[in-house]
Amino acid sequence: MASQSIPVRVVTAETVAKNIRAYTLAREDGETLPAFGAGAHIDVLTDNGLTRQYSLCGDPTNTQEYKIAVQLEEQGRGGSSWIHANIHTASEIQINPPRNHFELDESADHYLLIAGGIGITPIMLMAQRLQALGKNFSFYYLARSHEHAAFAEQLRNTFGERLHCYFSDAVDERLNIAELFAQQSEVTEIYTCGSEHLLQAILDAAEPHPNLTVHFERFAAVEQDNSDNTSFEIELARSGKVLTVSPDQTILEVLRGEGFTVETMCEEGLCGSCEVDLLSGEADHRDSVLNEAEKAEQSVLMVCCSRAVSPRLKLDI
Ligand code: FES
User: Fold this and answer.
1) Which of 165, 185, 182, 55 is nearest to 115 (CA)?
2) Ligand 1 binding site (Cβ under 6 Å of any ligand atom)
3) Which residue owns the Cα nearest ligand 1 atom 3?
4) Residue 3: its pLDDT value, please?
5) pLDDT tens digit string along 2-43?
6) C-alpha dihedral (271, 273, 274, 276), degrees to nearest 10
7) How far is the CA of 99 from the centre of ligand 1 (A)?
8) Which of 69, 187, 213, 230 is the most buried (most CB within 10 A)?
């Protein structure tokens, strides 16, 4: 089933950094918007048929408005350039309700937050939440330059000394991630969002430290090597039907071929909208939505990209 989209009006549209515009959205009928927590995103449905996910970065206690920030991706797939060119104050657009695959575990004692570029949007809400909870955290914001750093002034005012900004155009302002991680003596949860390069550096630097757990959100799908793909079967539990997924097909394609409607947004393992319950069998998870523990649980899978380790997967369809 597809989510019920929500018609919203753009209340404000403003440039908040070089190539980044922020949009405040409110329901056209004046009703309240669904609640959300730090790390949540919404889908923006563009008139040219694209669906793009953007983290919510406004105040979660304000149920009248959502705020998103969109970075223009010159080499992107067209979503951000369409939004920058076509969405203005008073524009009317459709969104899907918030979903959260990057939830903040509020039970820990120590946190490190690391945002790269536009990855600041989910991380800034996490910082606000941790501050409200009185948690022990440090907040690092890496950007190409001052002019590329969205919300930097607002964040400085809110977090003061807790916020450490690093700009790559300044010769002496590089964050030494390995050194930072080596200094952590406590069990620490690291939340990060940024480029694949930054994420990989963080994962590599954290690996020797068992007291550090990295939670992350990706902007782009991880490239997959499909050369070793093999066939496998899917069993549809509600009908008992068994279908074969060939090496060059996805489960999603096979389901669609049988006339099933599966909700999808990104179709590359990033958004989580195509999640299906896995009743038995072992999936080869290829998405960037589930964390390692969730993948090991083998209770759900993303049918747009995941395959099978076992010969058959039984799906709750
Ligand atoms: S459609 Fe986005 S994860 Fe499958």
Assistant:
1) 165
2) 264-267, 269-274, 287, 289, 302, 304
3) 269
4) 61
5) 568 999 999 999 999 999 999 999 999 999 999 999 999 999
6) 120
7) 12
8) 69
Let me know if residue 226 belongs to a domain.
Answer: no
Indicate if 83 and 122 belong to the same structural domain. Answer: no
Structure tokens at 277: 């319950």
- Number of structural domains the chain divides into: 3
Using 50, 70 and 90 to split pLDDT, how confident is the model at 221?
low
Residue 218 corresponds to which tokens in the numbers above?
A: 């990706």
Please give the Cα distance from 215 to 151 (Å, whole number): 22
Which atom of ligand 1 is the closest one to the Cα of 266?
2
Q: Which atom of ligand 1 is nearest to the CA of 274?
A: 4
Is-contact 41 56, C-beta < 8 A? yes
Rounded to whole angstroms, the Cα distance separating 262 from 197 reads 32
Q: Is residue 223 part of a domain?
A: no
How far separated are the first and last CA of the chain, in Å rounded?
A: 12
Residue ranges with strand state E in 175-285: 188-193, 212-217, 232-236, 241-245, 275-280, 283-284
pLDDT tens across 192-211, in order? 999 889 999 999 999 999 99
Question: Which CATH number fits the domain that encloses residue 236?
Answer: 3.10.20.30
Distances in whole angstroms, Cα of residue 314 to Cα of each of 56, 280, 285? 35, 5, 15
Looking at the chain, the whole-number percentage of residues with pLDDT higher than 70 is 96
Which of 217, 249, 267 is where one domain is finished?
Answer: 217
Q: Is there a contact between 140 and 113 (Cβ–Cβ < 8 Å)? A: yes
Supply the pLDDT for residue 1: 42
**Domain limits for position 29:** 6-99
Whether 118 and 213 share a structural domain: yes
* ipTM score for this prediction: 0.99
Q: Give yes or no for a contact between 136 and 112, defined as CB atoms under 8 angstroms apart.
A: no
83 falls within a domain: yes
Any domain includes 291: yes
- In ligand 1, the atom with minimum distance to the C-alpha of 265 is 1
What is the distance in A from the centroid of ligand 1 to the CA of 203?
23
How far, in Å, CA of 25 to CA of 23, rounded? Answer: 6
